[in-house]
Design goal:
single chain, about 325 residues, Jelly Rolls, five-stranded antiparallel sheet, 7 helices, 20 strands, about 30% strand, globular, binds 2-oxoglutaric acid, binds fe (ii) ion
Amino acid sequence: MYVDGASTTRRTAFRDAEKRYQLKLVEQFRVSANGKRRGGRFVAEPTDLSDVLDFSVDDERSSRRSLVSTSGTTETYAIDGHPGFYYVKNALSAEEQRTWVRAAVSELCEPPARTNFAKELGELPSGLWNAVQEDLMLFDGAWARPGREVKRGDAEERFFARHLLKKLRWATVGAPFEWTSRVYEPDVPRRAISDDLVELTRRIARAAPEKWTFDAQAGLVNYYQPGDTLNGHMDDAENNLDRPIVSISLGCPAVFLLGHENRDKSPTAMILRSGDAVILGGESRKCYHGVPRVFASDESLEFELPTCLRAEAWDDDAYASYISRARINISIRDID
Ligand SMILES: O=C(O)CCC(=O)C(=O)O
Ligand SMILES: [Fe+2]
């Protein structure tokens, strides 16, 4: 769906910013009772976020943003130096956040949606989420109970549904994207974009004062675990770059870098939080962007999940436990 510049190795202002925010693990040592130094525990090195916009707090960094409109609890902001980009805070209600987390892991990644597994394993059988709950594994193209005990470190471990769920990185809804030829494939089986998703993203797109035409036709669902990143890229496979992209964040917070038309200008860093959305329209539609960092919700108080995603808010603990260590992004595009 995007140009992932071969230039990720070239030193650019964008690349420097990615490095600044990426997760760095440092070994933690402790001295045991007999005076020996023991290591082996890795923790995240603190990251300096003093230059990162956070729409959930009002401080000196807020001078770089301006409130464009308010509708109920939804607030839409523009950011200095990034025409056409909007941050839509509280774009989703508490209930909608749960609905779309549930849909992302139990519907949007289900066949015939294309996922990152297609190349290595072929299409997974349907029911990945239920297979995780029942601790099943992939055997001869179906979910099955393991025939014998599988120990930690055994090669078969990677076929457990719980392991595959951790490796789920993307799913496409609507017209699937062929990453090699970099085109949307018109005539293959697909998971249609539901009316609910069309309606939701249309509503969000209307928050932009430009009132761009936006027809939700294809979507990419990205699944991130803490430590996962999305390299700086520009989405350019869609025919008409005058149409915006609407991109919804769910679960753990992330650092999002919004750059410019090349990688040499310093990007603006901001935190994307659950229930918020961004609109990449106008000039910003052709700008580099990426996600160098996803924070686990228990890393620090400022990254806690909103109450609507914590265990007590669900009737099924499994969703709460997944989303406390995952981020989901649903980006919807108009591809004509
Ligand atoms: O995860 C995000 O917030 C950004 C996703 C994105 O840029 C993409 O899917 O093209
Ligand atoms: Fe993108």
